[in-house]
Each structure stands twice: as structure tokens, then as C-alpha cells.
Amino acid sequence: MLGQKLIVDQETYLGPIENLEQTTEAFVKWFNDPKIIEHMSVKLGRTTAEETERLQRISGDDSRIDWIIYHNHQLIGCITLKLNESIGEVGYEIGERNCWGKGIATACLKKVMEWVFDNTSLDIRTVEGKCSVNNVGSRKVLEKCGFEQKSIDDNQIVYELEKK
């Protein structure tokens, strides 16, 4: 399911896919960049056909909500919320490297968490976020958004944010 438009700030908003072809091209570019997928569970070498099929499939999936991140009118990443009764699992990526380290992911995740916990129809009480132990940037995003470390293993840290 595609998320509704959420205004983050004057330069950034979250919304549904506005142009499938453009979105597909962006994701294919990102998923074929080893530096971008270094900490993701995505295989290198995704094709346009594979990505088009994936984007069409997730658009109709009611067990998740997906937002595209637009910054200065450019598609730069995405946020996904997977729904499982009263627990959500969030994932995010900034695919445009020139947007890394600017606080955009943090601002967008804060906006999504505000929306999730204010949305009574979802009844989400807890949201988990997972990242690679070595993904310092993603760890900082989760921690700045109030997530607390729940568990850690050799490769992954699980964070949790509870509704207040």
C-alpha cells in the first residue's frame, strides 16, 4: 500500500510513487551500486523488469505502507513500514549519496513515526528498526528518532520504539 503525502519540511516530503518509470530507474541505479547496498539485504544486479514487478507488487500489498522520499523535487529514497498486528517494522534508504549525512532520513523517519503513532486505525504500539552492526549512519538515524537498542548479534542490531 502506498503511503499518503506527509510534509517533512520545506524541501522534503514523503508520498506515493509519482512516476513508476522514474522510480524504477532510480531503484535500479541504487540497487546496482555496491556502496549503496553494502548494508542491505539486496542482491547486486537488479534489472528494470525485476524492479518494475517489485514496485507493482508492493503497491498492492496491504501488509505494508511505502513512502517515496522526495527532496527538492528529486526522488532520493524510501521508507517502508511493515504491519504485523500491534507491531510495525520500519526500513529506509537514501539512494542518492549526495543526500547522505544531511539529516534527511532522520527527519523523514520522525515524521513517519509521528504519523504511525497518531494513526489510531493502525493500532501500532511498537515499531522495530533493524540495521547492520557496521551501518553507523543508520544506527544514528534510529537513535536520533528515539529508538532504543533491543538486541544485537554478529551482523544486526534490532532497535525498538514504543508509543508513549
Description:
Helices cover 29% and strands 32% of the residues. The chain has 164 residues and is an alpha+beta fold. It has one domain: Gcn5-related N-acetyltransferase (GNAT) (Aminopeptidase). Strands 1-2-3-4-5-6-8-7 form an 8-stranded mixed sheet, with helices on both faces. Helix 1 packs across helix 2 (48-59). It is globular, with a radius of gyration of 15 Å. The mean pLDDT is 92.
Quick overview:
This protein is an alpha+beta fold and 164 residues long. The chain has helices at 20-31, 48-59, 104-118, 136-144, and strands spanning 6-7, 12-15, 64-71, 74-84, 87-94, 126-132, 148-152, 156-162. The protein has one domain: Gcn5-related N-acetyltransferase (GNAT) (Aminopeptidase), CATH 3.40.630.
Q: Poorly predicted ranges (pLDDT <50, ≥5 residues)?
A: none
- What series of H and E elements makes up the topology? EEHHEEEHEHEE
Major sheet: order of its strands? 1-2-3-4-5-6-8-7
Briefly note the structural class of the backbone.
alpha+beta
Tell me the overall shape: globular
pLDDT averaged residue by residue: 92
Topology of helices and strands:
Elements: E1 6-7, E2 12-15, H1 20-31, H2 48-59, E3 64-71, E4 74-84, E5 87-94, H3 104-118, E6 126-132, H4 136-144, E7 148-152, E8 156-162
Parallel strand pairs: 5-6
Antiparallel strand pairs: 1-2, 2-3, 3-4, 4-5, 6-8, 7-8
Task: Sum up the structure in keywords.
single chain, alpha+beta, Aminopeptidase, 29% helix, 32% strand
